[in-house]
Specification:
Helix content: 25-40%
Radius of gyration: 22 Å
Strand content: 15-25%
Largest sheet: 7 strands, mixed
Low-confidence stretches: none
Strand order of the largest sheet: 16-17-15-14-20-21-22
Oligomer: single chain
Length: 482
């Protein structure tokens, strides 16, 4: 995506890449295909805008944060497919690590519970299971990175001098970084059998890392943020207590806690929100829902219930309510606030009355209820009651979902004019680093609301339906035996 100096979209080009499911619970991507697509969309966006690379002030990168790649520094070739954030193959590694110190073994330093979600155990799995990977690591020839690191390394030359860096937001999702020092944690590295020599240098989210080659030759690469932090940045939630929810493949609610690290007592993650240059880091509380937009894709691709994602709204609106159906999409276990890797998805409350429309509506409600659970936990941890929620991501085009979200939260839901705030946040970080914008106050002035949904559900009904949802959630527990 190319943005102008007012934060408005100048051009966009996008391509899908393959989702690979080798076994139940395994989710992979092809890193070479990702890099190929990156090059194609750069060329496509420049062509759409009628620009050359040299016309750009800077480039920012944003990415799914926990997806893990390991590659040979001499050949530039990945040693395996990327292990995606939703992948659960590291169950046994997580259980092994938890035997000494329990599920919160690394929470004090990393802010994270032990879970299959994070990158550290995924890298350990690659080292243990990909032939030759550990030998390459011991020889100093193996590099690790999340997708930002992979892209920046390739953008800046790859085997010909590529810069091996990540930023504090992505590093904070590995379970290997200390939140206080913003450096790799030696105790975590030892416990997981990971060599520091594999790891990228941790930098701020907004600074010049290097210059690009190829179609962007000479343009500074100057912004790097994990996708959810980038959305927080793009929503200009720079103040303590400001929050946003992004509706993409998963669903992610972040609350800015300022320079204070807030340990969660209610199943949330403590993470870095961003760091601008050499300034202090800002931190956040985060609740992560594994399956949001991916549920619509599942209904389309696996069940054939709809033929396109957009049809879900029409089908769900064909019924007045969910007909007693609850859908808990714990396909990869449950994330916040439960952290139950033994959970699996259920559709509960089925009767002969239920039809396709009820299942579609229950799927949309699942996204809204999971967000409600996270918001409740966030308020308990922070003591902050939100007066409204800023939303972004592809699913915000679904007006029924946004109304359901306002109804189950009991607060207004506000969508900005530019809904692709993840890409916008990366652009903002890059532009700040090269002086295109003077500071965060100037960025705030660019934010414009597009639409607002206000709650219309009776509070008593809201609480009754919430109780039913939580009952359905308990039916997912313990499905996978140890």
């Amino acid at each position: 995506m190319i943005f102008d100096d007012r934060g408005q979209v100048a051009a966009i080009h996008q391509l899908e890449h393959e989702q690979i499911f080798p076994r139940p619970g395994w989710v992979e991507h092809d890193p070479a295909e990702i890099w190929e697509r990156v090059q194609q969309v750069i060329a496509g966006a420049l062509a759409t805008a009628g620009l050359a690379g040299r016309d750009l002030a800077a480039v920012g990168v944003t990415n799914q944060r926990e997806t893990t790649i390991a590659w040979d520094r001499t050949t530039g070739l990945p040693v395996s497919n990327a292990v995606v954030w939703q992948d659960t193959r590291t169950d046994a590694i997580v259980a092994e690590l938890a035997r000494d110190g329990g599920p919160d073994r690394f929470r004090a330093s990393s802010g994270l519970p032990l879970a299959t979600y994070f990158s550290g155990p995924k890298l350990r799995w690659i080292l243990d299971n990909v032939p030759g990977a550990r030998a390459k690591a011991e020889a100093g020839d193996l590099l690790f990175g999340t997708v930002d690191t992979w892209c920046i390394w390739n953008l800046t030359g790859g085997v010909r001098g590529g810069i091996h860096v990540t930023d504090v937001t992505n590093a904070s999702r590995t379970m290997l970084m200390d939140l206080t020092t913003l450096d790799w944690d030696e105790a975590a590295l030892r416990a997981m059998g990971i060599s520091r020599s594999m790891l990228p240098e941790i930098r701020s989210s907004s600074e010049i890392y290097g210059t690009a080659t190829g179609d962007l030759d000479g343009v500074p690469i100057a912004g790097d943020l994990g996708d959810q932090q980038a959305a927080l940045f793009g929503q200009t939630c720079f103040g303590k207590g400001e929050a946003k929810n992004t509706y993409g493949t998963g669903c992610f609610l972040l609350l800015n806690t300022g320079e204070r690290i807030v340990p969660s007592q209610h199943g949330l993650l403590t993470t870095v929100a961003y760091r601008i240059g050499d300034g202090p880091a800002a931190y956040a509380l985060e609740g992560s829902v594994a399956i949001a937009g991916a549920l619509v894709g599942w209904l389309r691709d696996n069940l054939g219930l709809i033929s396109s994602a957009a049809e879900i709204e029409t089908l769900a609106a064909s019924v007045e309510d969910n007909g007693g159906v609850s859908f808990v999409p714990a396909f990869s276990g449950l994330f916040a606030p439960y952290w139950r890797s033994d959970a699996r998805g259920v559709i509960a409350g089925l009767t002969r009355f239920a039809n396709r429309g009820h299942i579609a509506r229950a799927a949309l409600e699942a996204v809204a209820w999971q967000t409600r659970e996270i918001l409740d936990a966030m308020q308990a941890d922070s003591g902050v009651a939100l007066s409204s929620l800023r939303v972004d991501g592809g699913m915000t085009a679904n007006g029924l979902l946004m109304q359901l979200q306002a109804d189950v939260l009991g607060v207004p839901v506000i969508r900005p004019r530019v809904t692709e705030t993840t890409a916008l946040g990366a652009a903002y970080a890059a532009g700040l680093a090269v002086g295109l914008w003077s500071g965060t106050d100037e960025l705030r002035a660019h934010w414009v609301a597009d639409r607002e949904w206000t709650p219309s559900m009776d509070p008593a009904r809201r609480e009754r339906e919430y109780a039913t949802w939580r009952k359905a959630v308990t039916r997912t527990f313990g499905w996978v035996e140890p």
